[in-house]
Amino acid sequence: MTDLSTIQLLKQRLQKVIDQKKDEWEDDAIVDSCKDCLDRLDGVDMTLALLTDTLIGASVAKFKNHPQLGDAAKKLIAKWKEVAKKSEATQPAAAKAKEKGKAIRRESTNSLTDAATKEITEKWSDLPPNRQSICQKLFELLELAKSHLDGMSAEAMQEALAHTAVDVEAAIHDNNDKDRKAYSDKARSIAFNLKKNQQLAVDLIFGSTSPDELVHMSPEQLASADQRQAREEQAKKLTDSRRLDWEVANEAKINEMCGIKGDLLKASLFTCGRCKSTKTTSTQKQTRSADEPMTVFVLCMNCGNRWKC
């Protein structure tokens, strides 16, 4: 039996468990069966092609929160992530460009037929109208990540996107069942971030991130890597601007921007009247009333002359 056939068979066994109620997942026989599946999957020589063709990661990710199977599922997901990263890193640049071009052409020319569209929308046709609209919106946003799903057939891709959209909407609803406003706000937040962060959509489709984990993510976790970096830089600039010693800490940068270098670095605003040196240091003190300017005391570092102005 080939690796592809083995993975498909094991996926079918896991899917039968997933389709059951979660209360039944605690049965010892079911736990043993799932553990056997995960162990056998761990022994498969996994490749990026097998991951994309079978979408086994999405099925295994369902067990990440299971008290007995969670550790094994997380270990497999982490292992397969490394396989995907290595495959992408070793792929020749020319092949990447070719595949990217194909993906762009597929995205621009591919359109679902009426029959296919009907088949997809039937997956959430039993839901109330507002939930149907959320599923449809999530499906459309997940489609934006199609260019990152090279190697999958069109049928498998649409099936994966539809299942992911339904699972995400169900997770949003389950966590905000009694508060319609909270449900709408969470759906709007996730939709916004899926549009901006396509890597998040890819992680959802492949099962690296489960819908339940997505719902509980903070705004920082939902943001893309570029957005997080921009926010960190903005926060650092704001923190630096509040420092009382900002000028001292950034003196070298200020001097470089102003073209101050060489002997000018040792010069000051004051010139000694005795030796004409600019190597002086100064301090300010309030010696008069508060509405008067401060008195400046100057010391020449060359001859020791002192004066005030």
From TrEMBL:
Q: Where is this region: Disordered?
A: 88-112
Domain TFIIS central: where? 130-250
**A cellular-component GO term for this protein:** nucleus
Query: Which InterPro entries does this one have?
Result: TF_IIS-typ (IPR035100), TFIIS/LEDGF_dom_sf (IPR035441), TFIIS_cen_dom (IPR003618), TFIIS_cen_dom_sf (IPR036575), TFIIS_N (IPR017923), Znf_TFIIS (IPR001222)
Supply the SUPFAM superfamilies for this chain.
Conserved domain common to transcription factors TFIIS, elongin A, CRSP70 (SSF47676), Elongation factor TFIIS domain 2 (SSF46942), Zinc beta-ribbon (SSF57783)
What Gene Ontology terms describe what this protein does at the molecular function level? Answer: nucleic acid binding; translation elongation factor activity; zinc ion binding
An example GO BP is:
DNA-templated transcription
Q: What is the lineage of its organism?
A: Eukaryota, Sar, Stramenopiles, Ochrophyta, Bacillariophyta
Protein name (Swiss-Prot/TrEMBL): Transcription elongation factor S-II
Q: Which PANTHER family would you find in this protein's record?
A: IP08861P-RELATED, TRANSCRIPTION FACTOR S-II ZINC FINGER DOMAIN-CONTAINING PROTEIN
Which keywords describe this protein according to UniProt?
A: Elongation factor, Metal-binding, Nucleus, Protein biosynthesis, Zinc, Zinc-finger
Where does the record place Basic and acidic residues bias? 96-108
Q: Domain (TFIIS N-terminal): give its ranges.
A: 8-87
Query: One Pfam family for this entry, by name?
Result: Zn_ribbon_TFIIS
Record CDD domains: Zn-ribbon_TFIIS
Which parts of the sequence belong to the TFIIS-type domain?
268-308
Q: Where in the cell is it found?
A: Nucleus
